[in-house]
Amino acid sequence: MVFDSKFRNTLENIIHNTPHDPYTLPVSKEAFLKIHFQNSDSTSNLEDGIWPVLPFAESDICQVHIIKWRRLSAVEANCKPVYEVDFDITDSSINFKPGDTIGILPTNTDTEVDFIISHLGLNAVKNMNYSLSIENGKKGKIPQHIPASSTIQHVLKHCVDLRGLFKKMFLLHLSRFTEQELERRILEYLCSKEGSNDYTIYILEKRLSLCDIFHLFPSCKPPVQILFEHLPRLLPRPYSIANSPQVNPNIVRICFSVMETGVERKGLTTGWLEDIISNDMNITMKTLSLDDTPNESPRVPIYLRKNVNNFVLPDHDKPIILIGPGTGVSPFIGFLQERESFKNEQILGSAWLFFGCRNAELDYIYKEELERFLQNGVLSKLCTAFSRSNNCEFKYVQDAIYAHGEEVVKLLRVGAYVYLAGDVKNIATQVKDVLIQCIAKHNNCSKDEAKEYLTNLEKNKRYLVDIWN
Ligand code: NAP
Q1: pTM of the entire structure?
Q2: DSSP conformational letter for 160
Q3: What is the CATH number of the domain that holds 81?
Q4: Ligand 1 centre from 333 Cα, in Å?
Q5: pLDDT in tens, 206-228
Q6: Dihedral of the alpha carbons of 447, 453, 459, 460, in degrees to the nearest 10
Q7: Domain co-membership, 142 together with 95
Q8: Whose CA is nearest to atom 2 of ligand 1?
């Protein structure tokens, strides 16, 4: 259990030392959803076609198998797992090019769904068909991501984000269904004006989930329609495609690191994919030991996303500068594979990659591929930065870019396209700042002029960023 009695004690102590009861609570709307169960088990599920509208969809949803996978980072305790997986898209409607992304539709874990169902005493009705309506005389709409008729099990598994950030209004509604006095007061405090700072510290920063709340406050037992009213939609997660259809159009490859979400909990999609891989490993072991277990891994629902950023390769003779720390390198592996497949037919412009990771021995992913691209001329130059190694020339990719600023700016003058894949908060801003510094220094211009230069590159789609949250 992530949030234990120690955490609960901390919250209790805060309440004891905060003599503000009654607290200033947010103005709330009355609960409005009514649920009615029909006395028959449902057979409906997502695979029968009840999908909400998908963000940026370019294809239908395809249920695909992982046909190959490998771990790209070292298997060591101090090294974040990074995997590459191949999805079999034969016969699917996915028609991709390098730089495209796919959306993966995650599902909530059975552990979390089962816990909520049993905590709320819903085992008897979890697979019964329900229909939702609005309570007489109340105002409200059935949220778009909640089917008006389905089953609780289905909604909790596929439709709602059980780990989404808690809004104060949700806490307030939960407090109303919390029988135990102290538990109710803590919940009220956390959504009150007086508890605003502690709400940020203990709810938002700790990323408390619904299961955490139920574990911490066992007498909190809202009717399920309160969850339907407040839980946000379980959204698909985007991943860059890391291969070229020129090599194999029937495979979509992604690479991902298994994220820890700050509370010793793995990311929903990456954790799920890792579980599939581990089960696959177990199945393979059993198969080797001639066990009769059928070799069937679960299907993963994926779809092709619109390439709204125009993150595509220019003509092959144009120079390109690629900047991708960590798994940010994945779209560039697809770019370089694509160029490699044309290298005997077309003249290739120069290609320069800035790659960064923590340690050359641990998480230098795609090292072999990059060295091959260097050897066969698909990649003209490779600059690496290792952020947690001693005696390394560069810590971050932007340090390497700055050191090679003169050559970078020269390439820009002859029409290079710059691509950056990284996280929106830090890497994207810092790389942009460094590019501006380099342009100002080597084009002998002011910072404002350098900014304008970069803005023009953006307008002309020669500075393209694929940023991730
Ligand atoms: P990671 O292992 O956390 O980081 C890779 C390297 O980047 C590390 O050396 C890290 O250094 C460094 N770094 C940290 N902050 C930086 C900064 N402000 N500027 C430059 N470098 C910095 O990376 P990851 O988990 O693979 O993720 C890389 C990024 O690419 C993420 O934002 C991810 O969302 C994004 N991305 C992912 C995909 C995909 O499909 N998986 C595609 C495109 C982009 P330290 O940690 O040692 O400080």
Answers
A1: 0.90
A2: B
A3: 2.40.30.10
A4: 16
A5: 989 999 999 999 999 999 999 99
A6: -160
A7: no
A8: 326
